[in-house]
Amino acid sequence: MKTIIVYSSQTGFTKRYADWLAEKLRADVMTLAEAKKQDNKYFDDADGIIYGGWAMGGKIVNSEWFKERIPAWKGKKLVLFCVGASPNGMPEVEEALHNALTDEERKYAKAFYCQGGISYEKMKLPSKLAMKAFAAMVRKKKDATEQEKDMGEMISHSYDISDQKFLIPIVEYVREETA
Ligand SMILES: Cc1cc2nc3c(=O)[nH]c(=O)nc-3n(C[C@H](O)[C@H](O)[C@H](O)COP(=O)(O)O)c2cc1C
Q1: CA distance 86 to 54
Q2: Boundaries of every domain in the chain
Q3: Does the global pTM surpass 0.90?
Q4: What span, in angstroms and rounded, lies between the C-alpha atoms of 41 and 20?
Q5: How far away, in angstroms, is 82 Cα from ligand 1 center?
Q6: Which of 73, 104, 107, 141 is packed most tightly, with the most Cβ within 10 A?
């Protein structure tokens, strides 16, 4: 089975998951910039195609590249995965996953979430400013819930909550026999 993993990563969490996944699935792995240099045949020959992008404002960065190609890749195992700073189980994670694919796209592709973290050290300046402003807004919110207050505190500094265990459902899904 030929599987290709393509990813977009700013601070390394999505890259780490893409590399872990490539090892588990013995797949080819490359950045989106590298994928754009490949010809269509390279992807046509694959049995599975996986795209991973980091979460930005509830969306998966550069996922349009993958979504636009779903109609052409219908017979393949198709996976979209998102890596964000939110811990699993937060309502916005479910919402983002649901919004990642339309009902039509969901017939052919499946979306997953892997918790990543925050690395202010590796973030580009505009991202750093946006995150710091967002963290301050959450912390200062008047009627914030306990969960929101904790989140505001958490995202004010760097942390890493990534774990290979979040890839288990993706690996199982890719290996599952197609009916
Ligand atoms: C501008 C901006 C917006 C973000 N929005 C979200 C978000 O909506 N949900 C989330 O879980 N994480 C969000 N994050 C956090 C990143 O998705 C998180 O740090 C991720 O692990 C980065 O992955 P990377 O290391 O592959 O770039 C945001 C980060 C930035 C800089």
Answers
A1: 11
A2: 3-119+160-175, 120-157
A3: yes
A4: 25
A5: 10
A6: 73
pLDDT in tens, 57-100: 999 999 999 999 999 999 999 999 999 999 998 888 999 999 99
CB-CB contact of 144 with 154 (8 Å):
no
Among the atoms of ligand 1, which is closest to the Cα of residue 53?
26
The residue written with tokens 């979209």 in the block is 80
CATH class of 3-119+160-175: alpha beta
What does the DSSP assignment read for the chain?
Answer: --EEEEEE-SSSHHHHHHHHHHHHHT-EEEEHHHHTTS-HHHHHT-SEEEEEEEEETTEETTHHHHHTTGGGGTTSEEEEEEEESSPTT-HHHHHHHHHHS-HHHHTTEEEEEEE-EE-TTTS-HHHHHHHHHHHHHHHH-TT--HHHHHHHHHTTS-EE---GGGGHHHHHHHHSPP-
**pLDDT for res 178:** 60
